[in-house]
């Protein structure tokens, strides 16, 4: 069944994707809050700040068909050294254990290596959300060694183990370049049995469906990547596509936006609420604006009005006000609570029988 799902996936990627701007939410959408209230979980509140997630910008060497960030080679929006320093200032004066770095291709930000080095000096867990192909790009050949030296955890997008599917979604030769990057990472110890260098692969459906069972799909990835390419990895995360930016544009063009949204609503699982990533994450965009999560950031939903709105406003006292804050929600939040749930750490609950 899973093989059939994967084999029929993915629509072709256009050669040149124009920047897309979906209209931001002018005010929080209440329908998700009403759903939470129906199961006694409203308002949705944070339980602390365990992850500081930085989006270093929209510059990327790829232009993937379903990118919720709308990243691409044409973008020049990148986080400045000043804003990055403000983020480090917060880490230095707090006990936030994890720095989660994303983009775009975050490695293309000129301050990426400095940021990683400084966070490593602070003994923080550092995560690099990597598209893999950047590791084979000219000028970045030594990047895998740098990441290994600083014991950076790599979370790498690989939407399928089939070459045709990956190239349709992400561009010509992306699969081969991704395999080359994975082999290089394996040679450094990433993803190998008993290695402390974690290499997580990420799957997301190409079309308007929920992901398959994460554990079953991980077993298939492991089997196929070992047999066909001698690739090892630590684990697999499955993510649900959020109905924002490019994926929403695709849904609108195909006339499937209402159907997909209703599917997410119908698949709402109250058991996922406890583990929602927004409850322990603080998201910072390339300009230093604060949101409850990366998805809120993309639809321009900032923190609640009474809270600090910029990373430069945070100190010990203002950070304390964020620990049990009320989370701002929108319709896209149904994407995180559908089925077994979805977050930057993969599924949230076991598969429902």
Task: Provide a quick synopsis of the model.
Helices cover 33% and strands 10% of the residues. It is an alpha/beta fold and 353 residues long.
Features:
globular; disordered N terminus; TIM Barrel; alpha/beta; 8-stranded mixed β-sheet; 353 residues; single chain
Strand content: 5-15%
Q: How many beta-strand elements?
A: 8
Following the backbone from N to C, one meets helices and strands in this order, namely HHEHEHEHEHHEHEHHEEHHH
Helix content estimate: 25-40%
Q: Could you name the ranges where pLDDT drops below 50 across 5 or more consecutive residues? A: 1-5, 7-28
Structural topology:
Blueprint: H1 2-7, H2 31-38, E1 51-55, H3 81-92, E2 98-102, H4 112-121, E3 125-130, H5 143-149, E4 153-157, H6 163-170, H7 174-187, E5 199-203, H8 214-229, E6 235-238, H9 245-254, H10 257-266, E7 281-284, E8 290-291, H11 294-298, H12 316-320, H13 334-337
Parallel strand pairs: 1-2, 1-7, 2-3, 3-4, 4-5, 5-6
Antiparallel strand pairs: 7-8
Characterise the protein shown here.
This protein has a single domain (2-8, 20-337), classed as TIM Barrel. Helices cover 33% and strands 10% of the residues. It has helices at residues 2-7, 31-38, 81-92, 112-121, 143-149, 163-170, 174-187, 214-229, 245-254, 257-266, 294-298, 316-320, 334-337, and strands at 51-55, 98-102, 125-130, 153-157, 199-203, 235-238, 281-284, 290-291. An 8-stranded mixed beta sheet has the order 6-5-4-3-2-1-7-8. Helix 8 (214-229) links the parallel strand 5 and strand 6 (235-238). It is globular. The two termini are 16 Å apart. The model is unreliable at 1-5 and 7-28 (pLDDT under 50).
């Amino acid at each position: 069944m899973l093989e059939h799902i994967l084999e029929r996936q993915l629509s072709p990627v256009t050669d040149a994707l124009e920047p897309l701007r979906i209209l931001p939410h002018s005010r929080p959408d209440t329908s998700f809050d009403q759903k939470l209230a129906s199961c006694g979980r409203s308002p949705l509140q944070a339980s602390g700040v365990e992850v500081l997630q930085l989006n270093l910008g929209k510059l990327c060497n790829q232009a993937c068909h379903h990118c919720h960030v709308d990243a691409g080679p044409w973008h020049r929006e990148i986080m400045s050294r000043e804003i990055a320093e403000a983020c480090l200032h917060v880490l230095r004066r707090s006990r936030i254990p994890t720095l989660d770095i994303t983009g775009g291709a975050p490695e293309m930000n000129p301050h990426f290596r400095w940021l990683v080095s400084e966070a490593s000096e602070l003994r923080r867990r550092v995560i690099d959300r990597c598209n893999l192909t950047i590791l084979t790009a000219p000028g970045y050949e030594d990047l895998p060694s740098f990441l290994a030296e600083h014991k950076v955890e790599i979370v790498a997008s690989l939407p399928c183990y089939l070459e045709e599917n990956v190239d349709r979604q992400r561009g010509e030769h992306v699969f081969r370049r991704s395999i080359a990057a994975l082999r290089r990472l394996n040679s450094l110890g990433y993803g190998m049995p008993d290695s402390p260098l974690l290499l997580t692969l990420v799957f997301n459906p190409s079309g308007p469906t929920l992901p398959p069972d994460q554990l079953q799909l991980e077993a298939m990835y492991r089997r196929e990547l070992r047999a066909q390419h001698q690739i090892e990895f630590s684990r697999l995360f499955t993510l649900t596509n959020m109905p924002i930016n490019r994926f929403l544009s695709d849904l609108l063009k195909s006339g499937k936006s209402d159907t997909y949204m209703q599917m997410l609503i119908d698949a709402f699982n109250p058991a996922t609420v406890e583990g929602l990533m927004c409850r322990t994450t603080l998201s910072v965009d390339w300009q230093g604006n604060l949101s409850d999560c990366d998805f809120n950031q993309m639809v321009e939903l900032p923190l609640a009005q009474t809270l600090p709105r910029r990373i430069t406003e945070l100190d010990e006292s203002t950070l304390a006000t964020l620990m049990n804050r009320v989370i701002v929600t929108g319709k896209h939040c149904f994407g995180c609570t559908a089925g077994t749930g979805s977050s930057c750490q993969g599924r949230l609950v076991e598969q429902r029988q």
